[in-house]
Amino acid sequence: MNTFGKLPSDPAEIPTYFENLENIFETCGVPEDVKPKILLTHLNDRAKSLTARHSREKLDKKQLRDKFYSLRKAADETYTMLASKLHKALMYYLKSREITDDFDALVSLICADRLKELIPKSCLDYVLAQEKDSWLKHDDLASFVDIYMAAHDTSGTLVKTHTATDCVLPSPKSASC
Predict the structure, then answer these.
(1) Which residues contact 39 (CB under 8 A, 6 or more apart)?
(2) In angstroms, rounded to a whole number, what is the distance separating the alpha carbons of residues 159 and 86?
(3) Which domain holds residue 67?
(4) 168: in domain
């Protein structure tokens, strides 16, 4: 039995539509993995097109973060609509970083992201190479940055590399290099 219609085309009606849909899912005990399949069958043509485009684009973590910070209110948009877009964009970003209900991890991520904005580009490149598929918590990131910067000047330029000739062979009475 179909108890809800297609996704409305009027943006002002969309939040209510999803609230009602979520209530129906909860009342009927719909499993989490089934909800998207049901929703897809009730999307309007525009939403189906956007969904298809989104699945092709597969934004990376940085793009998700940048999307959140670049959102602005459109002239024909209410602040409620903007707040909804901001919330969804931030949630997508946090989920991409595997933060779902850990407040300390959230604070660490925000601090780590901000620290990355403040370090020299060469250092950032070094950090990103260390992160690979994960992200460094703010304190681990700070340690990596300190190690990198200890060997570089404030702009991130390598100060000095050590070579074999930098090390003097120890004499029997001295054991330092």
Answers:
(1) 21
(2) 43
(3) 60-96
(4) no
CB atoms within 10 A of CB 170: 10
Q: How far is 62 from 65, CA to CA, in rounded Å? A: 5
Residue 129 identity (one-letter amino acid): A
Residues 88 and 105 in one domain: no
- Name the pTM for this structure: 0.48
- Dihedral sign (CA 167, 169, 174, 176): positive
Q: At what angle do helices 138-150 and 103-118 cross, to 10 degrees?
A: 30
Residue 131 inside a domain? The answer is yes
**Phi, psi (deg, nearest 5) at residue 58:** 40, 80
Residues 51 and 84 reside in one and the same domain:
no
In a domain, 164, yes or no: no
CA–CA distance, 93 with 4 (Å, rounded to integer): 29
Give SS3 for 11: helix
**Which helix or strand (DSSP H or E) is residue 147 part of?**
helix 138-150
What value does the mean pLDDT of the chain take?
77
Grade residue 55 by pLDDT with cuts at 50, 70 and 90.
low
Number of structural domains the chain divides into: 3
DSSP H or E run through 10? none
Q: Are residues 119 and 75 in the same domain?
A: no
Helices (H), 4-137: 14-28, 35-40, 45-57, 61-70, 79-96, 103-118, 121-131
